[in-house]
Amino acid sequence: SHTDSPVTLKILQNWVPRVSHYFDKEHYTYVGHQIVIQESIEHFGAVVWPGALALSQYLESNQEQFNLKDKKVLEIGAGTGLVSIVACILGAYVTATDLPEVLENLSYNISRNTQDRNMHKPEVRKLVWGEGLNEDFPVSTYHYDFILATDVVYHHAALDPLLATMAYFCKPGTTLLWANKFRFSTDYEFLEKLCNIFNTTILAEFPESNVKLLKATVREN
């Protein structure tokens, strides 16, 4: 119900420290699977941010409330792919999307962590927020049960296209799960706009990391 207050959680140390010749690989464990993520220092989207850890952890712990098995899941701004990989492990049909320059590293991480495993084969696609949505993802063909987004709101010029993208994909029956670090007034302004469009609930807060996890669904009149 809407009176439920958010749970307060801590981001657990779910990554495995190990001696590695590669400074750029992180090892995580979610849902009993070891996940190896290659980060890239060239791109913002190629580092694992706290919102991704928060949402991965939450999906792992709340599989009954958010059962992803055989569900269609779209991740926008997938970055390194950690959240999409966790969704795959949880049995979803996943489409991971991001900007063209991030796709190579994203594809590498996703295929490396999902191939030869008993999972639905994920898809990696280009999606520039607010651009070509009708052409690339026509509503008649593409309907998603879940939209996942982590750390997509920070200082950048594409906040309105991002909101438009969320609104485009979030149809009746779709649940948007968005985890983000809240630092700037613009982050709270975006949240306010989101609340104006959707039924919005804060599911969890991770105060040490300043991360909030929100659930949004379309208002049905």
TrEMBL record:
One term of GO molecular function: methyltransferase activity
Matching CDD domains: AdoMet_MTases (cd02440)
Annotated keywords: Methyltransferase, S-adenosyl-L-methionine, Transferase
One GO biological process term: methylation
InterPro entries the record matches: Methyltransf_16 (IPR019410), SAM-dependent_MTases_sf (IPR029063)
Domain of life: Eukaryota
Protein name per its UniProtKB record: MT21C methyltransferase
The organism's taxonomic lineage, starting at the top: Eukaryota, Metazoa, Chordata, Craniata, Vertebrata
